[in-house]
Amino acid sequence: MRSQLSKVQSEFLNDDDVIIISHSIQPGNDTVEVLQQYAQKNGIKAQKWHLVTGEREQIYALARNAYF
């Protein structure tokens, strides 16, 4: 999925109407620092693509109730 979203990032990098958000599904492992390192390693631009983490229950509830 990252490779496909990298293409989206490139295509819409200068379009302020488009952002990408990726939720961690392993918040116990994916600390802010880990996500920052992942972003740097994979060319993720913070102004375009947001990597987020939080409480597992909240992440899953958001996915179930807001995205589907």
The poorly predicted ranges are none
% residues in beta strands = 5-15%
Largest beta-sheet details: 2 strands, parallel
Percent range for helical residues? 40-55%
Count of folded domains: 1
How far the N terminus sits from the C terminus, by CA atoms, comes to: 18 Å
Please state how the strands of the largest beta sheet are arranged side by side. Answer: 1-2
Number of helices: 3
**What's the shape?**
globular
The rounded Rg comes to 13 Å
- Based on DSSP secondary structure assignment, what is the total number of beta strands? 2
Mean pLDDT: 92
Order of helical and strand elements: HEHEH
Broad structural category: alpha+beta
Write a structural description.
Helices cover 47% and strands 12% of the residues. It contains three helices and two strands, in the order H-E-H-E-H. Strands 1-2 form a two-stranded parallel ribbon. 3% of the residues are buried.
